[in-house]
Amino acid sequence: MKINRFSIGLVAASLPFSSLVNATTVEYWTTQTQSDRLQTIEIMADVFEALNPGIDVKVIAVDENDMPKQIAAAAAADTLPDMIEVGSDLSLAFAEEGIVDAKSSTELIQALGKDRFYAGALKLVESAALNEYVSVPYSGWVQGIWYRADWFKEAGLAPPTTWEAIEAAAKYFYKPSENQYGILVGTKADNYAEQCYTQFALSNDAGQFNSDGELIFNSSAQKEVLDFYTNLAQYNPPGPQSWRARDYYLQGKLAMFFYSSYILDDIALAEAAASSLSSENFKDLKGAAFDPDLAKNTRLATTITNKSPSSFGTLVGFTMMKNDNKEEVQATKAFIQYMNEKDQVVAYSHMAVGGHLPMLRDIAETDEFLNDPKGIFAQYGKESIKEIVAGFDSIKNFSVVDGKTFPKSGEIFAKQIIPRMIYRAAIEKEPTQTALDWAEKQMQTVITE
Amino acid sequence: MTPLERAEARFGWKLVAPTIVILGLLILYPLMYNVYLSFFDVQLNGSKIFVGLENYIKLLSNTDYYSAIATTSLYLFGTVVGTTLLGLAMALLLRDPFMGRGLVNAAIMLPYVAPVISVVFGWQFLFDPISGVVNYLFVDLLGLWSERSNLIGDPDSALWVVVLFDIWKHAPIAYLLILSKLVSISRDQYEAAAIDGYGPIGRFFHVTLPELYFVLATVVLLRLIWNLNRFEDVYLLAPNVETLPIFTYYQAFTGVIDQGLAAATSVIQLGVLSIFIWFYIKKIMKW
Amino acid sequence: MLGKKTIKGRIGFALAIVLLVSFSLLPFAQILSTSLKHQYDWGNPSLIPQSINLDAYKELLGVTEPEQVEIPAAIQKILNNPKLSEDKKQAIAAKYTANDNLFPFGKYMLNSVIFSVGAASFSLVFSVMGAYSISRLRFKGQVVIQRSVLFVYMVGGVLLMVPLYQMAMNVGLASSLWGSAFCLFLIYIVQTLPVGMYMLGNYFRGIPFALEEAAMMDGCSRKEAIIKVVLPLSLPMLATVFIYCFIIGWNEYLFASVFLKQYPEFHTLPLALQELFVSKNAIWDRIMAASMLTLAPIVICFLFASRFMKGGKTDGGVKG
């Protein structure tokens, strides 16, 4: 692929490399580290290889938190993959660094049909500077508060869709002496914390940039958000927490937690574990409270409202990296086109029901997609699923304001400034204004770089 | 030099040559190369720009560096004191043969040989705020703590968990060293002390401790030397405890990568380490 | 010792032993316990599982029943592509149902074995040569070498990670799979060689010269004398050194993460375990079962080597 590779090839010439010599290799980094999902992707890649002799697709799983680091390392070593499957924020950040082949992505989107994509999804990957798309939108998920509907009902509490309702419920269910906690919001300095935080910020109209591209992060509205968030964090399980604490919900020790639509899988998993037990075993359970009706009693609230309603989701797309090898570029494009065929889109969506909502409207509305193997969509009702997906027409995040995209926002994301700010305020108990000032200063550095 | 001696010397060099080459190339040279790197702005891909003392200036004006030094000092203090005391206690307790001593010995050596990676998960689970045994024990059973806490999540308390982990893992080594000296103290000395009217505690202070003085110093120095560079035990159990090696690792391989700065921290650390090693060589090895 | 003859003393003594052993073994008990628990049982502080769950072990060891994995409809549709030949279809479908790459424990284990056994073997050979040379032969510079080895022995890996990585980068090894693996292999030798030399040097010094001289009187060359006399006498120590070096390589995480992180097919167990832990595949019973299995070879080796590690034979030469 690159000069560097070639010289290494010489060094390693004695090693059995022959199988790779003639094939064009598409190196594809995915953030789907869960092995069953990886397996599905590999199947799709295998079929593609079988249909396209001479092209090898090499699928490599990279943890999403590691992605910026690994890409930086690969860029430095000149071993970038051909395509990566990442969130739109990162696509924009990598484009800003000049390592993304936006031209090819734009051509692909044209070829697939621009009108087929949800409008909001395309906006999230549009680079105003390049006047091109930096990524081909592929799947997305929405986030929300998952909560124990049965507990809420019993307590007579309103569903957690407004700041007041969330705080009231978190406070009500926070009973540390009984080892029960009100809510889980991210307080460890990682991406999960930023995801939880962003939804609150957007519901309070507190952005990062104004439409003129000026940094307006450190505002009074933002302070309200951080104050509220820090306050909410006291009803968390003790100490810094991240998504891993979802275990506590499955054990019935948590009333609400933020999670993407991905969790559908996990709740199903808990059910599967439970079904393997006889009722006799349940009688013996003392410390462990497993509720066999957990899935039934769980609801998702996707919209949070304060000053304005906000739903938060992440869009994942295929981003092609700069590459001088024309053959590889062609092969990669062919592979992405193949992945956007209906069968592949549906298979990809079904490997994480609710986590991979398709970005092509015509496919998202078909029965093939809506009839997932576990019948989860049916439980929600197909119409409401369509509604959720259609949310991608007007999805919000920090990097888009009034139709303009700010790639710097992606870099701010990659540097994990907001998670670290949350950690300072919520865990280190730094005054919220001090934490905001710190974050603003960090963001300034990123912008002026 | 006789021909025989010359042949012996030649043979000696021949045998030791591979070792010299390997160690020279992959330890001594890198140590020097590291000093060189510390004067450059080093990228992950190997490109370098000479920056003079800038890395050192940046380092010495970085408050995080000082907090890493403070954390390391606490870590060293806690682990050295803890390991030595527990090792001594274990040696005293297990000095005399009793039934099942072999089994007890094997049990207490296990933490030392076990891979760090496989035991850290057990430790993390023990300290889990909601499901862990430690919180259950201290909050629910004993009522010593008023509320559950996330000891590993909070960096301040995590430091002490990491210290405890190191004591757990390395006290067996201290125990072995101390025990080997302890069993060599002759009975006569104790009997003489008993005749002088010393009780068990008096005998400990008048006979045992003076005899152990040297081996205890050895243990302390060895703990300092090994723990100054301790990485895996800390990083894998509680990555939020930033001792110097972890600080260096973050600089070198994560986030905003700055390998030149990492090289500078390593140089300073090597300086400190050399002092410890020098002490060890002078006072313990007596060269 | 302290008044062990009285009843009170005895009870105190027994209590202290129990406490000590529990302290040492509790984390192991926790790992074992969680590895055998069902998910609903994790929140239960008792170390005894409500019901035994062996799934994690079965999955890791690949002894799960060749379960009929049903190919989801969506994937079946992809496979039904008319352009796909029947053979290919079968082969791909078989791969899906094979289900062996959930967490390829066997592969990681093999990687770990190759790295640690390989490095330990090289290390042992070099350290026998080196240790013999510095402990039993006289030549100028011998003392300097001996002291350098001790110094080098005590320099931790952390101080070397940046320069070694940069060196590997400069010669172009760090950017290829085989190059990185080769670097790691060399590093494991370097990490274990001083230990081996130090331990063996001390041991060789204790073997009487007379034995070797007698062999040479009988017409053996020096080399033959080493092979016929010194090595057989040192067999237990050689085994100990080998196991010791093996354990160091087996347990190593730092350099594996620096050099091999981006090459999952070469991950060693510690690296694979940490990667598993941070991934969303991290289910406690699986992590704990994998930990148990990583632990097992070490425990076996240790039980074998423990009789040599007792009583200060290691003489401060113990790393860690």
Explained architecture:
- The complex is a heterotrimer of chains A (449), B (287) and C (320).
- By secondary structure, chain A is an alpha+beta fold.
- Helix content of chain A is 48%, strand content 16%.
- Chain A is built from 23 helices and 15 strands.
- The two termini of chain A are 31 Å apart.
- With 287 residues, chain B is an all-alpha fold.
- A two-stranded antiparallel ribbon of chain B has the order 1-2.
- The longest helix of chain B is centred in the first third of the chain and has 35 residues, at 3-37.
- The radius of gyration of chain B is 24 Å and the shape is globular.
- Chain C is mainly alpha-helical.
- Chain C has helices at residues 7-35, 55-61, 73-79, 86-98, 105-136, 142-154, 161-170, 177-205, 209-217, 222-251, 254-260, 269-278, 284-309.
- Residues 310-316 of chain C have low confidence and may be disordered.
- The A-B interface holds A 69, 72-73, 76-78, 176-177, 179, 181, 188, 237-241, 245, 247-248, 251, 253, 415-416, 427 and B 43-45, 129-131, 147-154, 240, 253-257.
Give the topology, please.
The complex is a heterotrimer of chains A (449), B (287) and C (320).
Chain A: H1 3-11, H2 18-21, E1 24-30, H3 35-51, E2 55-61, H4 67-77, E3 83-87, H5 88-96, H6 102-112, H7 119-124, E4 126-127, E5 132-133, E6 136-148, H8 149-155, H9 163-173, E7 181-184, H10 191-203, H11 220-233, H12 246-250, E8 254-260, H13 264-275, H14 279-284, E9 298-301, E10 303-305, E11 309-311, E12 313-320, H15 326-339, H16 342-350, E13 357-358, H17 361-364, H18 367-370, H19 376-380, H20 382-390, E14 400-401, E15 404-405, H21 407-414, H22 417-426, H23 432-448
Parallel strand pairs in A: 1-2, 1-3, 7-8
Antiparallel strand pairs in A: 3-12, 4-5, 6-8, 6-9, 6-12, 6-13, 10-11, 14-15
Helix pairs in contact in A: 5-21, 6-15, 22-23
Chain B: H1 3-37, E1 40-42, E2 48-50, H2 54-60, H3 63-93, H4 101-113, H5 116-126, H6 133-141, H7 155-182, H8 187-195, H9 200-228, H10 232-237, H11 244-253, H12 259-285
Antiparallel strand pairs in B: 1-2
Chain C: H1 7-35, H2 55-61, H3 73-79, H4 86-98, H5 105-136, H6 142-154, H7 161-170, H8 177-205, H9 209-217, H10 222-251, H11 254-260, H12 269-278, H13 284-309
Helix pairs in contact in C: 1-13, 2-13, 5-8, 5-10, 6-8, 8-10, 8-11, 9-10, 10-13, 12-13
